Known about the structure:
Oligomer: single chain
Largest sheet: 5 strands, mixed
Helix content: 40-55%
Strand content: 15-25%
Number of helices: 9
CATH topology: Nucleotidyltransferase, domain 5
Number of domains: 1
Amino acid sequence: MKREIVLDTETTGLDPKSGHRLVEIAALELVNHVPTGKHYHVYINPGRDMPEQAFKVHGLSADFLKDFSCFDKIYQEFVDFIQADTLVIHNAPFDMGFLNFELEAVNATSLNNPVVDTLKLARGMFPGSPASLDALCRRYKIDLSGREKHGALIDCELLAAVYLEMLGGRQQGLGFLTSDKPALAKTQAEAGATLLSHYKNRPFQEARAFPVSEAELAAHTAFIDEKIKKKPV
Length: 233
């Protein structure tokens, strides 16, 4: 079975080297590209104030976070959950930079997991188009109504749905629902029901069409000319 971890964090700012810290970590387990329902989620006391700009993004105040544990008390449980499996992250350098900075600060081993960066993947799939998590949710018609602010756990759930679509849609993993693997089949059936809640009122296999911008058309033409016509495999 292929295990992957969809991961997201929230922070006090953009650069850990400038004194900013993690305030939330969430991680969702996928097996064969299907959520199993297992997850890790924690709020973290950053030991500092919360800048107004960061508060506007995720709504986590210093007063709310003050009663939670600091990173040195929670990191081992997090590391034990993700193990050495592939991490699926949107804009991976940002999250990995913060995580490894915090781990090094407590004299723990830095993460060396394989990483799938869905931001990089999206930019390759849709050159010239917005590639934020919000933009990808809109592209794939994934419900954003429950997301008033950024939050690591809800963003992981949305990213898991986006990632599945980027891999080719919800048919991924259905071949594993076989009678000789009843435990896995049950897990995937339950996880599938949860995942499909993101797709209310959508047929199971729906043809999708998206408006194409002039920039996308130009990028596609350039790709065809350079990669397909000049350098075919």
